[in-house]
Target: D-2-hydroxyglutarate dehydrogenase
Amino acid sequence: MSLAPAVLSRLAEIVGDSRVRTDADSLKTWGCDWTKMYAPAPSAIVFPSSIEQVQAVVLLANEAGFAIVPSGGRTGLSAGAVAANGEVVISLDYMNKVLEFIPEDRAVRIQAGVVTEQLQNFAEEQGLYYPVDFASAGSSQLGGNIGTNAGGIKVIKYGMTRNWVLGLKVVTGKGDILELNKDMIKNATGYDLRHLFIGAEGTLGLVVEATMKLERAPRNLQVMVLGTPDFPSVMNVLKAFQARLDLTAFEFFSELSVQLVTEHQGVPRPFDTATPFYALLEFEALSEDMSAQALEIFEHCVAEGWVVDGVLGQSEAQAKNLWRLREDISETIARFTPYKNDISVLIQRVPAFIADIDAIVAAQYPDFRVVWFGHIGDGNLHLNILKPDDLAKEDFFARCKTVNVQVFETVQRYNGSISAEHGVGMTKKPYLTYTRSEVEVAYLKAIKQVFDPNNVMNPGKIFDL
Model:
């Protein structure tokens, strides 16, 4: 599908000639996200610089009948930002300003194109902290984070993006501008529409501004990496440390993850001993007593046989390298065209759940390498199947899809989620009913119709109308 010249002219009138791109490189760059399952095929990329311009493009879409795909940092992993069917991509790259700092409320009002790391750095300059953090913080944008309710490595302590959004300004699929919640902590005046847009993946409209809550900066963070003989031991370690310390992070990853990261990223192994799984934990050592407690718990875990070896970061540089063992995994395995599953269950069900999933993987992928990692402190597991070099991408993805039903039937049996933090997009759309009932999906579609009656906003994502 291509746009009529008259429509392209009107887009240029709205945002300026230089802010409408139709060249092949731009279409490919802004028409995709980090997924590789769908070929980008947008008809144009537009770069508005104001809310009024965003609104004008949405109104034109309703009038002229073209679809819109919102684009942020394009770091998504479910094809939620892929324009594969001639859509117009709205990139918020030029709406990237910090608009207002509100110290009394520990809040900051920003445009949706602000990059996560940009917000983190701004908070640090104010002596505060924005805690939602993940490997793509240097390129992901807050509008996209809000659209997918991004999580990351600090959820066990600080929660998801949803927990930090005080207010939103949005342009709905109808072209209305709404100011949601007016940045207040307390506002008991009926439905909180802000939460409909958080996690909606741009299907209801575009987030154009957000007011984000900030927190006091953590002090004297300590990082430990512990090697465990099996996965149940990881859970025992979590329980032991949580009983006595307030953890800011608890991650896990497999030995294959360590092998790949140390080989391709030049990060040193945490210790000489190789173990099947590793736990990375972080906590604030606000006193010497807390550091001593951590070592006591470590010794207890060794005595119980839950930990084979371990290390406590002795410097900021060593702590960063320990974190890189976990944070560099996604970048490292990207070269192997991984097939990703991002699944979650209640923490108490994780050991039995991962055993069942492992059995499916071992039976169905005996010749594939499998990388496990995740935010185990909040029940979120990342299952990554690596493509063999001699297997075509299309054949590899097709084979992985045939096993998805077994994986998601297991997720359903444990009353879990087919997507913990990556969203649904197009890749998880066929499996939505394994997590959401058909009645729930009908309500979701009805909400979509209210905000976007002409289905111009990111159609074909999450569900089909």
